[in-house]
Specification:
By secondary structure, the protein is an all-alpha fold. Helix 1 runs antiparallel to helix 8, helix 2 runs antiparallel to helix 3 and helix 5 packs antiparallel against helix 6. The chain is built from 8 helices and no strands. The radius of gyration is 17 Å and the shape is globular. The protein has one domain.
């Protein structure tokens, strides 16, 4: 447990440094620090999984979470590569590959959350529209300018919104320490990815710089919780 806490602390520090390096256009160093953070949540997941070999139920859950986190790790790699390219076409390609990896992870999480819940509360579904509505309103009010790749981000925001309500549903129907961790993680994930859209397409340079810290800190807090949930 102490090892997991130490790794989590290192992740938060390197996540903060990553945001600072991106703000100061030091992309290569930011790539290094972000890689450390991403390896951190994978390491936590492996440690947590290793403690569940004697519990088949938790082992199955852990394997699903580990697979989802591996997809997040792949998505991180694509997004890091995106930041190293100045060519818009190449950059957008890696952005879409990254979003695609995260989409697969979110779909996997959503399916697992539904399977664990005793029932599904359908009146939660409208919550799915909150994130895409915020992005579209921001686009219409000229706070951000969504480009062609923005359509993919809108679709992704619907998917992560659905995964979040699946986690909320699990919390309401089957309350436990694990379901609390999962809902907080997915809410942080949604906030992070919504903020990420503003860092890419926001018109205010100051806002984009500030939101870099929000993106990194909320994203890695989310992945720490997802990895840690294997132990709960």
């Amino acid at each position: 447990m102490i090892g997991i806490y130490v790794i989590s602390g290192i992740m938060i520090v390197t996540a903060f440094l990553t945001a600072a390096f991106y703000v100061n256009e030091r992309r290569v160093i930011a790539t290094i620090t972000k890689t450390v953070s991403s390896l951190g949540f994978m390491l936590i997941a492996f440690i947590a999984l290793s403690k569940n070999f004697d519990n088949l139920h938790n082992l199955k859950y852990g394997m699903v979470m580990l697979t989802g986190l591996m997809l997040c790790f792949v998505g991180d790699i694509f997004l890091m590569i995106k930041e190293l390219f100045r060519d818009e076409r190449t950059s957008n390609l890696y952005l879409l590959l990254g979003v695609g990896s995260f989409t697969l992870a979110q779909i996997m999480f959503a399916i697992r959350f539904i399977m664990y819940a005793d029932r599904f509360i359908y009146w939660l579904i409208p919550i799915v529209l909150i994130a895409p509505a915020i992005l579209l309103i921001s686009h219409k009010t000229n706070i951000m300018k969504l480009e062609k790749t923005g359509i993919g981000l809108i679709i992704y925001s619907v998917i992560i919104g659905f995964t979040t309500i699946c986690a909320l549903n699990l919390l309401i129907v089957n309350p436990s320490n694990r379901s609390v961790a999962l809902f907080v993680a997915l809410a942080a994930f949604m906030l992070s990815d919504t903020a990420l859209c503003y860092t890419y397409y926001g018109r205010s340079v100051t806002l984009r710089r500030i939101l870099n810290y929000v993106v990194m800190l909320f994203y890695y807090s989310a992945t720490i919780l997802l990895a840690y949930s294997i132990l709960l």
